[in-house]
Specification:
The protein is an alpha+beta fold and 606 residues long. It has 3 domains: 4-149, Creatinase/prolidase N-terminal domain (Creatine Amidinohydrolase, Chain A, domain 1); 162-305, 3-Layer(aba) Sandwich (Creatine Amidinohydrolase, Chain A, domain 1), CATH 3.40.350; 310-601, Creatinase/methionine aminopeptidase superfamily (Creatine Amidinohydrolase, Alpha-Beta Complex). It contains 19 helices and 28 strands. It has a 6-stranded mixed beta sheet. Strands 12-11-10-8-13-14 form a 6-stranded mixed beta sheet, with helices on both faces. Strands 21-28-27-24 form a 4-stranded antiparallel beta sheet. It is globular and about 70 Å long. It starts with a helix and ends in a 5-residue tail after the last helix. The mean pLDDT is 95.
């Protein structure tokens, strides 16, 4: 069916492109800080193509519109863009060009590529600038064409900021900024423009609410040897925040003042920035400043990223406690699902509502760490499916319900996935479920030498599935913030080599997810996710060994386990894990019926 609404929006966009002399216009999934999730104000790509997944880039010319996204969203994107005329480009699939390859092949000599330079990272902007120079393509980066076309556009998010006490963070702002300045000195830099929101929040011990499910505030920070300037929206600065900033030495300026401030600032040495997290327009301003002052721009990874990735002892203590409470609540939810399905009406949406409400009862709850994914049977084959009140499948007493969820609390941020048996399942599903569990536990039980990255251990999770000729089109693991974003780097666990991709050694104190899965289009989806802490093991003649410790303790559904696909070590790993689950959670569960069920759900298997 033809999607008239999207086609009319694209028509008006093309009219604005023609008025501004723009031949191709690009719209990514990003805010001004390259955040993973974007507030409604920034959902320009979604407005013009209908696809609302968290990753995608839309490119529009007068003749064609193409949308690039990754394997998590192929099914969803096809469904949501049906009838729009927008072509889906399946990233990393054979024969599918990258955006720069597409533009180079299709743009004519001397044409103009336009985009809002505030929502394109420096790395992407420079790459396009370099590659398209072969066709003398000009970049026009100072136009947000959506301002004219999107007449009912939401306002820029603006919410009160708040202060976390030092005793909750483990380190004060002054202790953290001292470490950052040490790093600046090593790099020979005198000023540092920090654009990444969760890094700014971690460094200042401040939090906000400008991005859905991320407790961050829209902001920039400019750091020198003797000053720290925070650029934030005036309306977000409460009296508490202002008093705190005065106390610790943080100067406050308006969010929109950053460009003019950089242009006027007096700097006597090189400027540090991170291309990945600095938007292209801001980079151009920095470049102009550096040339005028005859200094250098130093591109290096944000030092704050490594500092916040390895949690301190206070953070780790709080994280462990939060995960236990969160796991107990999830366990109560699993019990509720199994004892409600088929007896009372249940949809994917009402199941998610139930879990969200239960999680909100945990002391210190702030918000969900991401919108709960509750996906029944075939819908779970879409790795990041999201049900809505008006579009949710009924959960019946047959098949599987996949629930991926988490919360942010005063003490940590959680993420966990369980796939729950709600009725009869096939032998094929049992095979896929069992292999997924084996992979999750094999990775969780890894012992590896210091210096290993996630790429070295990824095969442990994928191995059982690869041996069966199955794979999943997403990474195995990601870092998790502390009262911050549910996805953070630099650590990750994935197998594919991608030029320029961030890769970091796993070190004690890092938190990482472990989430293999199987996704069979039109049939079922399975994902089992635990969160792990990297801990130090034995040290000997071969060096320092590391391993993982579980943070997540929730039962794995034994109704879907087929021991035919397990060896003795897999069975032992599952039994050992289930013993820990019961031992850890039983003191936290007051309901005797739930406790009796948990004992049976974590029974030893042979």
């Amino acid at each position: 069916m033809e999607n008239i609404v999207i086609k009319e929006r694209l028509l008006r966009l093309r009219e604005e492109m023609a008025k501004n002399g723009i031949d191709y216009y690009m719209m990514p999934t990003s805010d001004f800080h390259n955040s993973e999730y974007s507030a409604d104000f920034f959902k320009v790509r979604e407005y013009f193509c209908g696809f609302d997944g968290s990753n995608g880039t839309l490119v529009v010319s007068q003749d064609e519109a193409g949308m690039w996204t990754d394997g998590r969203y192929f099914i969803q994107a096809e469904n949501q863009m049906e009838g729009t005329g927008v072509k889906l480009f399946r990233m990393l699939e054979a024969g599918v060009p990258t955006i720069s390859e597409y533009l180079l092949a299709n743009m004519k000599e001397g044409q103009v590529l336009g985009f809002d330079g505030r929502v394109i990272s420096t790395s992407i902007g420079e790459d396009l600038e370099k590659k398209l120079a072969a066709k003398s393509v000009t970049l026009k980066i100072d136009r947000d064409l959506a301002e004219t076309v999107w007449t009912d556009r939401p306002l820029l998010p603006c919410h009160d900021m708040y202060v976390l006490p030092d005793e909750l963070c483990g380190k004060s702002f002054n202790e953290k900024i001292s470490q950052v300045r040490e790093h600046m000195n090593k790099l020979g830099t005198k000023a540092y423009l920090l654009s990444k929101l969760d890094d700014i929040m971690w460094l200042t011990n401040l939090r906000g609410n400008d991005v859905e499910c991320n407790p961050v505030a829209l902001s920039y920070a400019l750091i020198t040897a003797d000053s720290f300037t925070l650029f934030a929206q005036e309306k977000e600065i409460t009296s508490e925040v202002r008093a705190y900033c005065d106390k610790v030495g943080i100067a406050l300026r308006g969010y929109d003042d950053v460009v003019s401030f950089v242009k006027k600032m007096n700097v006597t040495g090189n400027i540090l920035f991170d291309k990945r997290n600095t938007n292209f327009l801001t980079f151009k301003v920095l470049l102009e400043k550096a040339k005028a002052a005859d200094i250098k721009l130093v591109n290096a990874k944000d030092p704050t990223e490594d500092l916040k990735a390895s949690k301190n002892e206070v953070e780790l203590k709080n994280i462990r406690e939060v995960y236990l409470k969160d796991s107990a609540k999830l366990t109560e939810f699993i019990y509720w699902v199994k004892n409600t399905v088929g007896k009372e009406p249940m949809t994917e949406y009402t199941a998610a509502e139930k879990l969200d409400g239960m999680r909100a009862e945990i002391p210190g709850f702030i918000e969900l760490s991401f919108p709960t994914i509750s996906a029944y049977n075939a819908n779970a084959a879409m790795a990041h499916y999201e049900a809505t009140k008006d579009n949710a499948a009924e959960v019946k007493k047959q098949g599987l319900l996949l629930v991926d969820s988490g919360g942010t609390y005063m003490g940590g941020t959680t993420d966990v996935t369980r796939t729950i048996v709600v009725g009869d399942i096939s032998d094929e599903i049992k095979k896929h479920y069992t292999l997924t569990v084996c992979g999750m536990l094999r990775l969780a039980n890894a012992n590896f030498l210091e210096g290993c990255t996630g790429k070295n251990v990824d095969i442990l999770a994928r191995g059982p599935l690869w041996n069966a000729g199955i794979d999943y089109k997403h990474g195995t693991g990601h870092g998790i913030g502390y009262i911050l974003n549910v996805h953070e780097g630099p650590q990750n666990i994935r197998w594919r080599f991608t030029p320029g991709q961030n890769e970091a050694p796993l070190v004690p104190g890092m938190i990482v997810s472990d989430e293999p899965g199987v996704y069979i289009e039109g049939s079922h989806g399975i994902r089992i996710e635990n969160i792990l802490e990297v801990v130090a093991g034995e040290t000997g003649e071969y060096g320092q060994f590391l391993h993982f410790a579980h943070l997540t303790y929730a039962p794995i559904d034994l109704e879907a386990i087929d021991t035919t696909y397990m060896d003795n070590s897999d069975i032992k790993a599952l039994n050992d894990y289930h013993k820990m689950v019961y031992d850890k959670l039983s003191p936290l569960i007051a309901d005797e019926a739930v406790l009796n069920w948990l004992k049976e759900a974590t029974r030893e298997i042979k």
